[in-house]
Amino acid sequence: MENNEIKTSLSEMLKIRYPIIIAPMFLVSNTKMIIAGVNAGATAAVPAMNYRTTEELRAAIREIKNAVTGPFGINLIVNKSNFTYKEQLAVICEEKVDYIITSLGSPEETINQAHKNGIKVFCDVTNLKFAKKVESLGADAIIAVNKEAGGHAGNISIKDLVPELKKHCKIPVISAGGVGNGHEMRDVMKLGAEGCSIGSIFIATEESDVSEEYKQACIDYGKDDIVMTSKLSGTPCTVIKTPYVEKIGTDQNWLERLLNKNRKLKKWFKAFTFLRGMKQLQKAAFSATYKTLWCAGPTIENVNSVRPIKAIIDQIVEEYHAEK
Fold it and tell me: I need a labelling partner for 57 at 20 to 30 A (CA). Which of 65, 95, 243, 300 fits?
């Protein structure tokens, strides 16, 4: 197909061929993945927290800018758990990336600072209340994180969340979760989405730096092997149900639950739980270990081999345009 562009308000806003965002994935996303996604006609984002220092973040942004002409974004955690939020935001604004994806907190300051620098802001939301809030603050688009998403998922299905946000919000709705091929993307667009944020199917790619074991797990396991655990960060998060996950369980034990409810201690316990969980994820992502805690969503059902990012995007677009 010569002209296989997918035109929506999102693709026009970002001037991309396909309204696909390769979702920012903690530990997984890297500069090679961003460059490959942009060069394939889509766009991509990387979490700021994938870089230990703001100077590393600045270097990554410059590396991407030197390699592509298309748009890319940075995912920014905007609540108090991100101690370097202000420094990260300053670097992002100085380097003038194309858009910021905000998560876990009020995006008001981010929107104000970003817009002063010509940067668009897309906000993660899980329900209509927060969607209306960020719209009133000036967000350029909302990312509807549904219960089919990988990582920290929402609790409303795609079929309910996207139409509700489309009906009540004036800014574009980008669906996040449950899309692993072009047929599913077409179905979501029919519900009113202007684009899709897609993550888990890009873990097992040639450009990804995670371990071969992690990539192979995305091939070997499927949607029925994804479970929700609260042991990683204190907030429910989707992981692959490996033998290790089955062994340790997915719920916090009685002591963890008690500490999580204690008014004086819960702040520190949550911080400890988060740091401990992130270290476990990092070790599992980049090395072979029996303590296999691998984040992924149900769309790994579509992963059958390790492939280049361009091949995956090309297939999604081909399936999207295919006749029923």
Answer: 300
